């Protein structure tokens, strides 16, 4: 091998060991491109999406030009703040055949931190867009129609976002289907219509593994209509807890409106808030709001509800779901059910049970600009200013401010100030006219009303759910990361701990950590016999774990070749550590080390498996490696466990 070839091979191995480059790349795909080129410009664009899916790294963006393409199968992941993004550069980037591995258009398999933006995925065998066994996946601005089963499907995906999509005419099932134990989904501003079953379906599906619960979902500003000829609901929730459904418009759906229940979920759909929705159910539909199977503690507030069916009505609940149930400030018709829909009660009888004290009967003609087509409130609508401010969102379906005027309007739309910006300060105006301005830096002027915008991390202002903008706003031993206060890391070198595993047990106490890291040579402090080694297992937030520094000196020995250091102490006098081994594997790759640590730490408290991280400092502060483990439902490397046992692989 020549010197040049040797250097090139070494550089390639170093790139593999360190992982993706810090320099994000922009790739291009176009019809008529060439997969044999570099893909780094339109002139050298690739021809297929599969080529891009095979090479992208965290932070990379794939720009796809208008044209017809085979779908793609992605197994590679981005990273926090560095997603892999596939973006359609025009309105006619069409996926016209399945990806070749699964019967779907776009398939994300174990891929996390990915954004899919702007694709048209019609007529695929199973799903238009499918994502499973990942986390932090976003699908936006896509159109998925006439697909065999689903427009968009997820399974075991935490922190999934679907926004500004159109999902329609799914042949067998649903427009958007969030399945299995994936927490914190956001389903926002989608148009889901004319699907055979549900417009939006969330199902914890305990039989498939996990806890069978979808928690902390946010379903907002969706328009859902024409679904359900095959059954289901406009918004179907099986095993969904502690979630918010707000500012949605559901009309002309041929089954239920919003359903909270349990069939496949790991628990009933409890603790949810259904607020400021407009639901008008078709003449062949079921109930506007359906609560059953012990789905307790739900709240139904500020909704405009009407049913065109001959005898079904607005809210049905079974006896097992009534504990903790509240309902009020809704516009309704005088049809309710206290036995799951078997019989119908009047509003007066319903109020006699303690529900809807401030609600009232109103028809679509009284409420809306054009019943059936325009569900904005008409002038003089009885829903205007008649809602409760307690749970109302600060904006409406149009993303316009709420409240405007004397109070909160009932339903998905808030009637806006028509005189905003005319130069005259009118009642209800807070800003936008001469002499009026928002004093709170965490609000902005919208429609002459001061409303809180989405917080912007990095703008030096702590707003909304943000905890910090810089380290000084966090507590002792904490730093600000992503506008959250987290425990200061033991290692900030950027070197990843690879091929890692971790097991910890409380009783009998035991610890085993191992992993590999590439510590660039020449080494400064990598010599445990002289300088010792630090082992940290802790959490990004909260307590638990260990932080042990094994001192250099007599506890360590080194082999004759100088490639292995071993620490032994059966008593575990230092933090309970009984054995540690550091192997220099530079013959395989310059700077590569392998570390194994074992022990029996007394009084061990485990960090939570959702926030566990590991760091090994084998030399100076820069000669260290770390790994933040994914949570139990995330992709590998991830942790599972309880307060008694933790296992990470």
Key words describing this protein structure:
649 residues, single chain, twelve-stranded parallel beta sheet, globular, mainly beta, eleven-stranded parallel beta sheet, 5 helices
Describe this structure in words.
- With 649 residues, this protein is mainly beta.
- Among the domains are: 456-488, no CATH class; 491-648.
- Helix content is 6%, strand content 35%.
- Strands 1-2-5-8-11-14-17-21-25-28-31-34 form a twelve-stranded parallel beta sheet, with no helix packed on it.
- Strand 54 (639-641) and strand 55 form a beta hairpin.
- The longest helix has 16 residues, at 3-18.
- The two termini are 38 Å apart.
- The model is unreliable at 1-21 (pLDDT under 50).
């Amino acid at each position: 091998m020549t010197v040049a070839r040797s250097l090139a091979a070494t550089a390639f191995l170093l790139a593999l060991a360190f992982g993706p480059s810090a320099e994000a790349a922009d790739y291009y795909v176009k019809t008529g491109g060439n997969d044999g080129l570099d893909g780094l410009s339109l002139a050298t664009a690739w021809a297929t999406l599969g080529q891009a899916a095979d090479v992208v790294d965290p932070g990379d963006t794939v720009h796809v030009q208008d044209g017809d393409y085979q779908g793609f199968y992605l197994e590679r992941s981005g990273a926090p703040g560095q997603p892999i993004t596939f973006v359609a550069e025009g309105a006619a980037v069409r996926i016209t055949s399945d990806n070749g591995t699964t019967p779907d258009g776009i398939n994300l398999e174990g891929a996390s931190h990915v954004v899919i933006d702007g694709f048209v995925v019609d007529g695929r065998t199973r799903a238009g867009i499918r994502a499973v066994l990942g986390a932090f996946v976003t699908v936006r601005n896509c159109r998925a129609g006439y697909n065999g089963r689903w427009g968009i499907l997820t399974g075991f995906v935490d922190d999934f976002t679907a926004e500004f999509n159109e999902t329609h005419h799914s042949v067998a099932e649903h427009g958007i289907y969030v399945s299995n134990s994936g927490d914190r989904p956001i389903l926002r501003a989608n148009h889901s219509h004319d699907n055979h079953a549900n417009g939006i379906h969330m199902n914890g599906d305990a039989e498939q593994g996990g806890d069978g619960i979808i928690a902390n979902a946010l379903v907002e500003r969706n328009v859902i209509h024409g679904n359900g000829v095959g059954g289901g609901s406009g918004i179907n929730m099986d095993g969904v807890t502690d979630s918010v459904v707000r500012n949605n418009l559901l009309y002309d759906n041929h089954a239920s409106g919003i359903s909270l229940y349990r069939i496949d979920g790991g628990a009933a759909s409890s603790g949810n808030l259904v607020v400021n929705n407009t639901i008008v159910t078709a003449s062949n539909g079921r109930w506007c709001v359906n609560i059953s199977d012990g789905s307790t503690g739900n709240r139904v507030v500020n909704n405009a509800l009407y049913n065109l069916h001959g005898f079904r009505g607005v809210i049905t609940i079974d006896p097992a779901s009534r504990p903790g149930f509240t309902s009020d400030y809704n516009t309704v018709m005088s049809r309710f059910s206290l036995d799951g829909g078997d019989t119908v009660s009047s509003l007066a009888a319903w109020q006699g049970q303690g529900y809807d004290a401030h609600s009232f009967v109103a028809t679509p003609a009284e409420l809306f600009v054009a019943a059936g087509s325009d569900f904005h409130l008409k002038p003089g609508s009885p829903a205007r200013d008649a809602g409760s401010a307690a749970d109302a969102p600060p904006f409406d379906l149009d993303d316009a401010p709420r409240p405007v005027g004397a109070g909160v309007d009932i339903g998905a739309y808030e009637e806006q100030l028509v005189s905003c910006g005319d130069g005259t300060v009118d009642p209800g105006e807070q800003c936008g006219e001469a002499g009026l301005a928002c004093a709170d830096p965490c609000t902005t002027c919208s429609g002459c009303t001061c409303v809180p915008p989405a917080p912007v991390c990095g703008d030096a202002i702590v707003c909304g759910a943000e905890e910090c903008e810089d380290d000084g706003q966090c507590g002792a031993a904490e730093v600000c990361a992503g506008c959250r206060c987290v425990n200061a890391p033991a290692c900030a070198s950027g070197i990843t701990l690879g091929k890692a595993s971790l097991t910890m047990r409380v009783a009998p106490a035991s610890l085993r950590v191992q992993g590999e890291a590439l510590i660039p040579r020449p080494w400064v402090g990598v010599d445990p016999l002289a300088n010792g080694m630090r082992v940290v297992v802790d959490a990004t937030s909260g307590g638990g774990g260990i932080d042990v520094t094994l001192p250099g000196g007599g506890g360590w020995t080194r082999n004759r070749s100088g490639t292995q250091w071993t620490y032994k102490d059966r008593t575990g006098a230092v933090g309970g550590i009984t054995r540690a081994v550091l192997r220099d594997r530079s013959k395989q790759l310059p700077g590569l080390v392998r570390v194994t640590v074992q022990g029996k730490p007394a009084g061990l408290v485990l960090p939570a498996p959702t926030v566990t991280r590991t760091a090994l400092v084998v030399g100076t502060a820069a000669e260290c490696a770390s790994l933040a483990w994914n949570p139990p439902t995330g992709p590998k490397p991830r942790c599972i466990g309880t307060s008694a046992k933790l296992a990470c692989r």
